[in-house]
Design goal:
19 helices, 400 residues, single chain, disordered N terminus, Serine Threonine Protein Phosphatase 5, Tetratricopeptide repeat
Amino acid sequence: MVFSLCPIKNPVHAREKPSVTALRITLARLSQSEPIAGTIPGEAKRHRANKDSRNDVLLETRERKAGDSGVNQARPQKFPAESASGRKNRNRPAMIARIAQATLVLALLLWTSECDLAGVFVKTQADVTKRSTAPFTHWDTELVEHALANNLILSEGFLEIAPDYEPLLLLTVLTYVGYGQMWLEERFAAAQAASRYDEAERLNRRSGLLYDRALVYAKRMLRLRDKGFDAALSGGEKSFEKWTKVNFYKKRDAEVPLVASLAWFATMQASDDGVAAATDRPFAEILARRSVQLDPGLRGAVGLMALGIVECSVPAFMGGMPQKGKAYLQRAARITNRKNHGVLVALAEVCAVQLQDRALFKSLLTEVVEAKDVEEYRLLNKFARRKAERLLGQIDELFL
């Protein structure tokens, strides 16, 4: 999909765009100078011809005056030799005039195109932020938390200006889900471990609100790809899977279904019924599988990780397949060269516990605790390590 920086128009201020000739005349009046040579076909030649004719008349007049006075003067050169500094000084006013005229042209073009400069700024800001890896490589989780919280407020404001800009929607959904699953989930686990159940309930409700907001924007992204999203969703699993394959078919398309599936899974996780009883689970799985088909290693193989967690979280009698989930997570670990420690912790916490494999549980978490720093996944791995240490302390409670 192609995105334009400047098509946001306000119909209230719509006006008829002037012609090229009208722009040139307006520019000439604003600059109080001659029209720029060459702005109309053939004008450059006429401009030079007129200038040469004026020079010839001036030279002949000087010669006649010199003859009347009896002074024999040689005909001066049309372009007398001059020093480099002289040429530089002579050309400076013309250069300044050209810069001024070019600036006026740009201003006129922006004015006549009804370009929303605020929209341009917002989209550029979203593009730059999306490409940045600083939050993932930073070591101070508290500092990053404050930055993400501020970014959420800014993103909400930016979406009022550019509500349909896909990169901004992607960034906002990821921030909501990431903030909830890293910071709020860690606090929720700590509150539960300390028997502070009221606080744990409050944190769970707060996470649910953030995930619901993320899902609203995720569905907006999907509708932007194709207006048939709602019809495909209401048509059932086969209809939705067909729609997904039609609208996401290149590697560069993998991020939208991935991020949308993460928002969907997170919403189910925070609900009272959980992932197992969620009626929307098949649709989130369809999006995640499609993303994995297009780019399995995207964002640290988080698509495979999500699918593995779902399969291991859901009991077998409700359709879960722990062995399949284990295979998903092991594939994610291979793709990331075991550098994304969140994959290893998920494999231990969900699949090893579900399969009651104590040895696998202990070896995976010990590997995470003893692992060295990985810059690419530094932030994620800090959370993974703290969770691994907490789970190792609960090993006797998790295994019979």
